[in-house]
Protein: DUF3077 domain-containing protein
Organism: Pseudomonas oryzicola
Amino acid sequence: MLKIVPDPPHHLHSLEDTLMLASDYALCAEAVAQQAMLMQPRSPVSLLMMASMHELEALRKLLESALAQIHRPADPQALH
């Protein structure tokens, strides 16, 4: 029997690629929350949107830190 919907492709990403993709998603989600705040600044849910923006910004900083750790040499004393 044929499948109507095919299975999604299975792409194996490196850790760096995965972190960069996660950072992009966090940036997009933060932009959506900012746009929602601009559209409804006095909405009862505006505090929740601001909290979401804060959490997404913190997430992006953590992801950037993880990316920086990937690029850092494992043993900085071995460079001597």
Notes: Helices lie at 15-39, 46-71. DSSP finds two helices and no strands in the chain. The chain has a mean pLDDT of 86. The radius of gyration is 19 Å.
